[in-house]
Amino acid sequence: MRYNVLHFFERKNIDISNILYLTRQNPLTKITFFDGKEILTAIPVKEIALYLPDKEFVNITKGILLRKSQIVNISDDGLYAMTDGSVFQGRKRNISQHKQLRQALGLSKEQNEKTEKMIPLELLEKCSILNDMPLAFCVIELVFDANGRGVDFVFRYCNEEMAVVEGIPVSEMLNNSFYEVFENGDKKWLVTYADVALNGTKVILHDYSPEIGKDLTIYCFQPHPGYCACILIPR
């Protein structure tokens, strides 16, 4: 079967420069954009790939095509971490190719180690299955001062529903301070988040969030030492 890919691009107003990655969601192809928007199509990934710049995209395994400039980490095991927090497993049969690409993209060992310390890749990989969950979910990392006190927290993962609840694109939240994203954010929750991240406690918060003007129920738990995961449910 032949597909008119250019007609599809035109009909859907697709700007190639805004494509983040393509993934196979049997039996469909999902195109994900920088702003978190997604489009499903019956056109196979390999057919769309023919119309994308070879120098800008890389096929890491069957059915997964990533924009090179948005890859922030390639682990020694072939795990690719993207700027939106998604993680994909590359071909396992030739791990050396992934290491070569890491070098070609200028991702030094130090940069990869820094990213892995920022949030473990295994955790990112697990979180990625929640991208389309109909409940808002995020993972935050506590930032401490010289005395070891929690003074801020940074968004390390946000699923798509977070953008709906918070009213801000995921790209503007990821790897940014809560108090940079929400300048008038209430710091009363910081103590609770710090307790969860450090001590592994489980907490349910019921409160009004002035930064988004909504009453929220927030379920908090520790997915990894130093991190707090939150499920947000507007009331």
Fold and architecture overview:
The structure is a single chain. This protein has 235 residues and is of the alpha+beta class. 27% of the residues lie in helices and 33% in strands. It is built from 9 helices and 13 strands. The strands form 3 sheets. Strands 3-2-1-5-4 form a 5-stranded antiparallel beta sheet, with no helix packed on it. It starts with a helix and ends with a strand. The relative contact order is 0.10. The model has no long low-confidence stretch (mean pLDDT 84).
Could you outline the blueprint of secondary structure elements for this entry?
Blueprint: H1 5-11, E1 19-25, E2 28-33, E3 38-41, H2 45-49, E4 57-61, E5 64-67, E6 71-74, E7 79-82, E8 87-89, H3 95-104, H4 109-118, H5 121-127, E9 136-144, E10 150-158, H6 160-166, H7 170-173, H8 178-181, H9 190-199, E11 203-209, E12 214-221, E13 227-234
